[in-house]
Specification:
223 residues; Arc Repressor Mutant, subunit A; 2 domains; 10 helices; 5 strands; globular; Response regulator transcription factor; Sig_transdc_resp-reg_C-effctor; phosphoprotein
Length: 223
């Protein structure tokens, strides 16, 4: 059973999400919060597998709440709820440690699937859309203003290649097929990349790759 907390400042929205999620046999909403400050208390106390987090809320917004949960190492994965797919707050939430995002008007089956993906710690949620958000906001900073992370030097050439491919939305199986190796080998490479760079998950790996020029905003797909 996947345990969830729903965080949104609108009671009707919370009730709607609860109804949709609890219709699924493997999902259980164990708590709710109306702002980021309440979310910190509820999530720390209930330790849900996934926290559905609205961004624009009073008292403490979802971005600050996400940062606090990640900094406190609370064992939950944050799935950001947003009305707009190209939202600067979404990008910053991903950068802060959220595991993905979903539009509030997404179909019920898409919401349930997103929760399961995030709960499993699996690959990047909705990679095409997530890449578009990252692409839109990373390109705002002029390349000359970015200082590349010296930790990149720790990666082997193959690890850099794997990082570039996962950052373009390829799943482990797709990367394995492209590089003619086993999926288990790719999983090992991904784990090594995250460990060497001190990254939380694949979402942060994508952002890191863009900001360190492993991939270029607006670049062609590798398909």
């Amino acid at each position: 059973m996947i345990r969830l907390v729903v965080v949104d400042d609108q009671g009707m929205v919370r009730a709607g999400f609860r109804s949709l999620l609890e219709a699924e046999p493997d999902l259980e909403v164990v708590g709710e919060a109306a702002d980021g400050e309440q979310a910190l208390e509820v999530v720390a106390r209930l330790r849900p597998d996934v926290t559905l987090m609205d961004i624009r809320m009073p008292v403490l917004d979802g971005l600050a709440a996400t940062r606090a949960l990640v900094a406190d190492e609370v064992p939950t994965r944050v799935l950001v709820l947003t009305t707009f797919d190209l939202d600067e707050y979404v990008f910053e939430a991903l950068r802060a440690g959220a595991s993905g995002f979903i539009l509030k008007d997404a179909p019920a089956e898409e919401l349930a699937a997103a929760v399961r993906v995030v709960a499993a710690g699996d690959s990047l949620l909705a990679p095409g859309v997530t890449r578009r958000v990252i692409d839109a906001f990373v390109r705002r900073a002029a390349p000359a203003t970015r200082v590349l992370d010296p930790a990149m030097a720790r990666l082997t050439p193959r690890e850099v290649e794997v990082l570039g491919l996962l950052s373009r939305g390829l799943a482990n199986a797709d990367i394995a097929a492209r590089l003619f190796v086993s999926e288990a080998t790719i999983k090992t490479h991904v784990s090594s990349v995250l460990a060497k760079l001190g990254l939380r998950d694949r979402v942060q790996a994508v952002i890191y790759a863009y900001e360190n020029h492993v991939v270029v905003p607006g670049g062609a797909e590798p398909f």
